[in-house]
């Protein structure tokens, strides 16, 4: 008989300095320790003018920098990608018009220029740098009665040109993209409703990932850090989500991670070091200025179990201090340190902050101990 322990890592998102101006649907990218929000909207798309402002969140200083040169053509639902220290703002819309235009920003010089246009007019596409190129994936065009797209284009910076490459398996707009290892992932999105499907690309066609999101969502953010892929917030079947999911390649499935403080969609996300940042977004009523930040856990293998415990054939989980265990229908849970000493014991859900070290989890059923998993805690 196999017993199962549900382990939920809690990364503990905490508030950061709010945006100078609430916003959503802006282009977003991280460069040199700052996460940039470019363009976007400050209220609903039926009543607002597109913005041209460029604002940057300094992660180490928990502060905002303004006064940058504005985006040459204001718009929203544009893609934002960092490549070689510059930010590319791709496509987008001003309401009546969808754009092919691509503007490039050099934050160090505070200067804009324009590069080759997209092959097509497009908004709400996923965009990401991969193998020193920029990929624009799927998206939407044509206003309220427009079209969802499967097409994908790649920008080759040394030649300043775009080429079309393999199309997605499924049309999708308002998806998110991130790179883990040798895979470019596109996550969620909408096709006449929120999607839970995920696809990845390694250079030779798109593959539908068998592990789907726990919650269908669009207008989400995607993050990659320490070999794991994260899906952050977005709009689900019941409205804006604050939930965060992690595709843990060791666990082989999507698992719940700690949630943001508020539900939101069309937010900006970025990673600086191992600190993830979620910026702005559209809440249930309007644009938000909220900033959440979190240190993402590493992944890897822990040491062998202390004497007297049966080795566990499961990968280790590594987290940053705080863990939560759900013991399900078991009688008790023990957490032991590397020397085999019980450091905490619980007969219901356990939520603990543990010092750095290697820990071993043991469950009890009918008085019989059952080894469950290893956990490495870092600071």
What does this structure look like?
Helix content is 0%, strand content 45%. The chain is mainly β. The protein has two domains: 11-295, Neuraminidase (6 Propeller), CATH 2.120.10.80; 317-377, Immunoglobulin-like, CATH 2.60.40. The strands form nine sheets. It has a five-stranded mixed beta sheet, with no helix packed on it. A four-stranded antiparallel beta sheet has the order 2-27-26-25, with no helix packed on it. Strands 3-4-5-6 form a four-stranded antiparallel beta sheet, with no helix packed on it. Strand 25 and strand 26 (275-279) form a beta hairpin. The protein is globular, with a radius of gyration of 22 Å.
Entry keywords:
mainly beta, Immunoglobulin-like, Neuraminidase, 34 strands, disordered N terminus, 379 residues, 5-stranded mixed β-sheet, globular, 45% strand, 4-stranded antiparallel β-sheet
Summed up, what is this model?
This protein is mainly beta and 379 residues long.
| Total DSSP E strands | 34
What is the count of DSSP helices, taking H or I runs of 4+ residues? 0
CATH architecture of the largest domain: 6 Propeller
Give the fraction of residues assigned to helices.
under 10%
CATH superfamily grouping of the largest domain: Kelch-type beta propeller
Mean pLDDT: 86
Cα-atom radius of gyration? 22 Å
Q: DSSP strand (E) fraction?
A: over 45%
CATH T-level topology of the largest domain: Neuraminidase
Show unreliable segments.
Answer: 1-11, 300-305, 307-316
Question: What is the approximate shape?
Answer: globular
Structural class of the helix and strand makeup?
mainly beta
Main sheet: strand order: 28-34-33-30-31
Q: So what's the CATH class of the largest domain?
A: Mainly Beta
């Amino acid at each position: 008989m196999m017993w199962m322990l549900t382990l939920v890592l809690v990364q503990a998102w905490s508030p950061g300095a709010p945006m100078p101006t609430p916003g959503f649907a802006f282009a977003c990218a991280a460069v040199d320790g700052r996460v940039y929000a470019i363009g976007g909207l400050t209220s609903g798309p039926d009543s607002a003018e597109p913005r041209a402002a460029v604002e940057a969140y300094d992660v180490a200083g928990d502060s905002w920098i303004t006064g940058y040169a504005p985006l040459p053509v204001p718009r929203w639902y544009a893609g934002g990608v960092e490549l070689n220290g510059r930010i590319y703002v791709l496509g987008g819309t001003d309401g009546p018009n969808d754009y092919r235009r691509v503007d490039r920003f050099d934050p160090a010089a505070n200067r804009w220029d324009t590069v080759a246009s997209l092959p097509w007019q497009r908004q709400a596409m996923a965009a990401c740098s991969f193998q020193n190129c920029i990929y624009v994936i799927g998206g939407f065009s044509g206003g309220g009665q427009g079209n969802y797209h499967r097409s994908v284009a790649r920008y080759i910076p040394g030649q300043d040109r775009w080429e079309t490459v393999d199309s997605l398996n499924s049309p999708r707009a308002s998806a998110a993209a991130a790179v883990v290892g040798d895979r470019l992932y596109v996550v969620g999105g909408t096709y006449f409703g929120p999607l839970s499907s995920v696809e990845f690309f390694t250079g030779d066609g798109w593959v539908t990932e068998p592990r789907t999101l726990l919650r269908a969502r669009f207008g989400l953010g995607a993050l990659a850090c320490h070999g794991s892929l994260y899906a952050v917030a977005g709009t689900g079947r019941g409205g804006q989500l604050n939930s965060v999911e992690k595709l843990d390649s060791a666990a082989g499935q999507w698992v719940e991670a700690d949630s943001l403080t508020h539900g939101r969609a069309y937010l900006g996300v970025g990673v600086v070091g191992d600190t993830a940042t979620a910026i702005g977004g559209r809440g249930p009523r309007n644009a938000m200025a909220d900033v959440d930040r979190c240190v993402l856990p590493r992944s890897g293998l822990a040491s062998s179990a202390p004497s007297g415990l049966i080795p566990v054939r499961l990968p280790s989980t590594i987290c940053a201090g705080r863990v939560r265990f759900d013991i399900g229908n078991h009688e008790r849970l023990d957490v032991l340190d590397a020397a085999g000493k019980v450091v905490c014991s619980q007969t219901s859900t356990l939520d603990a902050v543990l010092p750095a070290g290697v820990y071993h989890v043991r469950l009890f059923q009918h008085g019989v101990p059952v080894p469950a998993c290893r956990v490495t805690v870092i600071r």
